[in-house]
Task: inverse folding
């Protein structure tokens, strides 16, 4: 299906799947090469994403890897206040997404730095304490900000993911939210086998008639099955990205942009 996102007044068509490049301004994200905490590193990564064909830059300032303890709200905001002006300076026309679960951080990112998309991982099942008192806090915020919103489900089965997403969409629509992207949450709240069961049924997400984001890049569902490591998970990532595109993914969230862009070109040609 042909979807279009309104990104700060600029229409981004998803008729051809888009590639979202990951820029983590954290010292502890699970994949070491994604960590950029200096101005030089942020500049380099920003240009790399765009030069390799990425159309969205996803900036994250709080690691959500399993077992991690989230940094404070103040620390997350401080990291973004450092990084977002650099990204905006180097890529003034880029579509910037901010990866956060905190409504106040979402508001700051949009109102102060012109972020175009909010990518929300929500309440994480592995967190020692709830990250949000209610998902409605973020729903209300993004509806007020009027920016595209990525809702991620951490439910373990496709049936539960679909129900979770449907309930979220109903709530968001009731608040006036226009652009909604759905993420089945690979690696969140799912066992290894559950991740692959969701992948096997991924085309069922199309029943909700909304854009689908898939983020499997170098995740443990790949390297644990192959008995390797995140550093050796590029080939597996490419395989699952290709499968996801064939099952209807509109956005690939990745560390390795060039390879994902090639996946899009080849599958689109088919």
Result:
């Amino acid at each position: 299906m042909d979807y279009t996102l309104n990104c700060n007044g600029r229409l981004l068509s998803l008729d051809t799947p888009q590639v979202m490049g990951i820029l983590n301004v954290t010292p502890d994200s699970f994949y070491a090469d994604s960590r950029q905490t200096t101005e030089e590193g942020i500049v380099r990564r920003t240009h790399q994403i765009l030069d390799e064909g990425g159309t969205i830059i996803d900036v994250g300032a709080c690691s959500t890897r399993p077992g991690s303890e989230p940094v404070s709200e103040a620390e997350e905001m401080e990291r973004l206040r450092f990084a977002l002006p650099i990204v905006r300076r180097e890529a003034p026309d880029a579509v910037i997404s901010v990866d956060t679960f905190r409504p106040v951080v979402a508001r700051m990112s949009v109102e102060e730095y012109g972020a175009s998309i909010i990518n929300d991982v929500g309440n994480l099942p592995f967190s020692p304490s709830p990250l949000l008192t209610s998902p409605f806090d973020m729903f209300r915020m993004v509806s007020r900000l009027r920016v595209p919103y990525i809702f991620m489900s951490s439910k373990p089965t496709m049936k539960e993911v679909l129900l979770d997403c449907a309930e979220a969409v109903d709530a968001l629509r009731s608040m006036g939210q226009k652009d909604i992207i759905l993420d089945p949450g690979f690696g969140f709240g799912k066992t290894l086998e559950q991740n692959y069961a969701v992948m096997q049924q991924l085309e069922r997400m199309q029943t909700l008639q909304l854009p689908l984001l898939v983020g499997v890049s170098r995740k443990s569902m790949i390297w644990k099955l192959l008995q390797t490591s995140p550093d050796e998970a590029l080939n597996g990532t490419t395989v699952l990205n290709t499968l996801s595109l064939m099952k209807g993914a509109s956005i690939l969230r990745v560390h390795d942009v060039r390879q994902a862009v090639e996946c899009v070109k080849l599958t689109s040609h088919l």
Summary: The beta strands are 4-7, 10-13, 18-24, 56-60, 95-99, 117-120, 149-152, 180-183, 213-214, 251-254. Confidence is low (pLDDT under 50) at residues 125-133.
